[in-house]
Amino acid sequence: MTGLNKTFLTIEELQRLGFRKLGRNVLIHPTVVIVDCSAVSIGDHVRIDPFCVLSAKRIDIGSYVNISSHSALLGRAQVFLEDFSSTAPGAKILTSNDDYLGRGLVGAVVPEALRGAHHGDVTIRRHGIVGAGSIVLPGVTIGEGSTVGALSFVKRSLEPWGVYGGVPARRIRDRAKDIIALEEELMRQADGSGQAKGSGVDPTVRGGE
After folding, report:
1. Residues 202, 209, 96: CA angle, nearest 5 degrees
2. Total domains in the fold of the chain
């Protein structure tokens, strides 16, 4: 058998799912698991590839975002993916983390009062990238334009425009800003005005509507 699940959901199927916001040109593969679509906001030109799991208190996805296959956005806090950010295959963004030091019980079936889990919002700023197989822990912000190399472990927030990698992730070098000019060219091609359109993910807004 060939071509199994080779197509993305139709616009009619996406509209029936009840997203908090659904932009234009959104591609979501039918194997993606989204636990609560009403907690998910999606901008324009977004693609979510096969076998991803989205299960967090709230997920805001900007425009021109690609969540690659086998990525997971998990936990009891919030995830913000700003414009032009992306996750490579197998990236894990965790907004909750159990206690591994024996001070609380572990697992989703245990009452919250007995777990001692840590929760914190995770933000991937504009042009941020989380590399293949990397893990981002609760409370982390990946600064604008920063990238995380494959198989890295990010436990602290990262400054803007850096290339980071390792366990734990550390800054290896500065990242070139040529992509800013490329973004401007894309916007000119998109609407002819030379003005970048907003995604609906306001970087100044965190928390409730």
Report:
1. 85
2. 1
